[in-house]
Amino acid sequence: MRIVDARKEESAGVDCEIRGWVRTRRDSKGGFSFVEINDGSCLGNLQIVAPAELDNYADEVQKLTAGCSVVVQGKLETSPAKGQATELQVTSLRVLGWADPDTYPLQKKRHSFEKLREWAHLRPRTNTFGAVMRVRNQICQSIHDFFHENGFLYTQTPIITASDCEGAGEMFRVTTLDLDRLAKSGGPVKYDYDFFGKPSYLTVSGQLNGETFATALGRIYTFGPTFRAENSNTSRHLAEFWMVEPEAAFFDLADDMQLAEDFLKRIFTDCLNHCAEDMAFFNERIQKGVLEQIQSVIERPFGHMTYTEAVEVLENCNAKFEYPVSWGTDLQAEHERYLTEQHVKGPVILTDYPAEIKPFYMRVSDDRKTVAAMDVLVPGVGEIIGGSQREERLDVLTNRMAEAGLNEEDYWWYLDLRRFGTVPHAGFGLGLERAVQYVTGMGNIRDVIPFPRTPGNAEF
Length: 460
Prior knowledge:
single chain; alpha+beta; eight-stranded mixed beta sheet; five-stranded mixed barrel; 13 helices
């Protein structure tokens, strides 16, 4: 039986077997020991009561320490202690693996999150990181459920690509060439000898490939790892992260915005409904008020502003910003947070960004200065979703590519989507880790992914 089920009041009176890891042990003068066991299924531990009559009581039970793995059999009884509905009266306890208390890192003392990153292989055993992973799992499940229920097909797009979706050039190169030999030769790289016969990279987005399926199957979504070779060490950036990207044919920007709002409200609601114990932990121990913050996003209709309106608000407010604001510059997190927390006092969707600061594939507006882009901003973080209506007009798209310095031959297949039965279509991207960070209140994005990849760090 899993501990999440064993701790329920209705489980009292059930004979069961529990498998898990020891968190704590304390011995009573009355001839028995209290051992706290956790199996990862929930935040709370199950208290087991091991009597001295057990054959291995002195040799093993009284030597249990944090980290030991055990299999325990017995009967669940109503617990007289506060804060727990049941406890297990042990009839058999078997130790599967010992954990030397002199070398096991996760002892009772508190460790900083920075220190725990050095033990990323063990940190899921702590309360905080166990809770993070359960919430992350729930968000992933909600993502699949939401899109399945709304008629979107789950589509797997390539991790290796020859095209740069964002046009920023911050991509990891994939090669089988002997780099040491190349360095010694000092000559130009001959990609004819490389595995794919051309420069290839780890993808920054599945969107362009996703569009090919949306313009055939109607509604699709991709959900997989993406990579950015940006040399950034902030608390909001990773070199490897997971992205969910829906794409829908016959959608315009208004449809896209509504989809994004419904999507966020669904995954936040599921976290509150299915991870109540973990969410209460985050609210109490990690970020006070995170439950109220998420609830307000669920309950309130999202506000709407154009980028131009937002810039006017920021230019005329009395707040002092580290980065100056002017039309044509990208908004920073401090600007986005002011808009959500001070001006709108809730989530807001900004639209119609200047064309020069957005990627080539976004649909150019009639004024030729802006594009049909939208960013969803939420209190506490700022941008959490970015999306747009895509440019479906071949001539406009090729002009935009020329302005961006992109070679049409590299995107011939993407342009074919506009040559053969083009349709209006739209989509957006949500970084999974950004969503987990927002829901949990965790301060650093490196602490909401199992094994963070950042500049200079590819451990584990």
